[in-house]
């Protein structure tokens, strides 16, 4: 928060001789006072700026750390390192259940800070439910892809999300097609194609799942934008929004788990073949759910203390950090072709962020 204290002029007037007796017209005293107050203002603004930067850096660090830990957690549990957890959808169901429980408990405990939205069943079914289902599918498909492909390859492919975001924005008439946007789509597409073309351990199903996840991510954020356009719904508070969306995500994923997870094979898995192993698996899934809750909450807090544009731009850097950690931790292969593809993709995503920032500035100018 910027502080701009008013500094009044020294009450001095050359046409009032009486003021001279008060020392007002003494140039040395006047300048000394002005210098003192100016230096105080600069010191105050400097301390506030440093505090703001440290606060922002702290939340970005928390976001990066928890997000990276969650990615490593998912890959370790779902990959070959721990024998492939047999029920990824059940794991996500537990994660969403924890998010729903914690967000609903907080909103109920502090109702004065989290107002209950006023929404008809029609709006709920047409806006909240599609947003929640697309969010759940985005996360479910992304985690499922980690069973087949590396974190590095999945992260690079997921960078295609802005393409689908723009396509859905065109479809819902939230954006108008332009040469700039089509150019951004082309740049990101080239980067993703370069990344996939030279993937030595290419897995079709993994690639398909992560691209479907990117598709659902585009739909998810488009629906979220539509949901948040009307302030009358009262869902701008992050915890209130989570308390409405997370239960639907939990139910949708639970249905998918009952249909797709191999429940009849659980007794043959090291995760569920004994009472102790089942308890350990529940604790592991709960730990991931807490990580997911903290990650989402830290992201929302970062938006509140900075801006959505800052978080979006920081997200580009976060993807690079995730890839570097995956290369160091999982020893994922990273060739120069992948590096070029990643660089092109990041340029495209950065251009997309710049475009959105420019549009936001135009909107602010029009409102003023």
Explained architecture:
- It is a single chain.
- This protein is mainly alpha-helical and 368 residues long.
- Mean pLDDT is 76; it is low at 1-31.
- The protein is globular and about 65 Å long.
- 35% of the residues are buried.
- Helices cover 74% and strands 0% of the residues.
Question: What's the arrangement of secondary structure elements?
Answer:
Blueprint: H1 18-21, H2 27-78, H3 88-109, H4 121-145, H5 151-158, H6 161-171, H7 179-197, H8 204-228, H9 238-260, H10 275-305, H11 308-329, H12 336-367
Helix pairs in contact: 2-10, 2-11, 3-9, 3-10, 4-8, 4-9, 5-8, 5-11, 6-8, 7-12, 10-11, 11-12
Key structural traits:
368 residues; mainly alpha; globular; disordered N terminus
Helix coverage percent of residues? over 70%
Separation, N- and C-terminal Cα atoms? 20 Å
Could you say which structural class the secondary elements and strand pairing correspond to? mainly alpha
| Beta-strand percentage range | under 5%
Main sheet record: none
State the order of secondary-structure elements, H for helix, E for strand: HHHHHHHHHHHH
Could you write a compact summary of the structure shown?
74% of the residues lie in helices and 0% in strands. The chain contains twelve helices and no strands.
């Amino acid at each position: 928060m910027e502080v701009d204290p008013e500094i009044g002029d020294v009450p001095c007037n050359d046409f009032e001789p009486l003021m001279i007796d008060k020392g007002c017209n003494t140039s040395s005293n006047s300048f000394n006072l002005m210098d003192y107050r100016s230096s105080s203002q600069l010191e105050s603004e400097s301390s506030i700026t440093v505090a703001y930067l440290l606060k922002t850096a702290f939340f970005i660090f928390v976001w990066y750390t928890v997000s990276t830990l969650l990615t490593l957690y998912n890959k370790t549990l779902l990959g070959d390192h721990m024998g492939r957890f047999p029920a990824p959808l059940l794991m996500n169901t537990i994660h969403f259940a924890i998010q729903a429980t914690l967000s609903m408990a907080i909103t109920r405990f502090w109702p004065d800070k989290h107002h209950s939205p006023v929404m008809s069943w029609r709006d709920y079914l047409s806006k909240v439910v599609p947003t929640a289902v697309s969010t759940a599918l985005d996360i479910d498909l992304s985690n499922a892809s980690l069973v087949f492909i590396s974190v590095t390859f999945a992260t690079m492919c997921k960078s295609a999300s802005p393409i689908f975001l723009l396509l859905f924005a065109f479809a819902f008439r939230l954006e108008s097609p332009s040469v700039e946007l089509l150019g951004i789509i082309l740049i990101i597409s080239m980067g993703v194609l370069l990344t996939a073309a030279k993937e030595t351990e290419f897995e079709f199903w993994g690639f398909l799942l992560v691209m479907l996840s990117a598709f659902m991510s585009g739909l998810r954020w488009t629906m979220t934008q539509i949901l948040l356009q009307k302030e009358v719904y009262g869902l701008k508070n992050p915890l209130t929004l989570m308390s409405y969306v997370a239960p639907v995500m939990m139910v949708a994923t639970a249905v998918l788990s009952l249909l797709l997870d191999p429940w009849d094979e659980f007794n043959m898995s090291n995760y569920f073949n004994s009472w102790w192993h089942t308890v350990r698996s529940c604790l592991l899934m709960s730990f991931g759910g807490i990580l997911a809750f903290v990650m989402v909450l830290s992201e929302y807090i970062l938006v509140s203390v900075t801006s959505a544009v800052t978080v979006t731009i920081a997200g580009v850097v976060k993807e690079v950090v995730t890839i570097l950690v995956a290369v160091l931790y999982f020893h994922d292969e990273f060739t120069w072709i992948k590096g070029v593809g990643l660089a092109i993709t990041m340029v495209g995503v950065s251009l997309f962020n710049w475009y959105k920032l420019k549009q936001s500035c135009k909107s602010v100018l029009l409102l003023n």
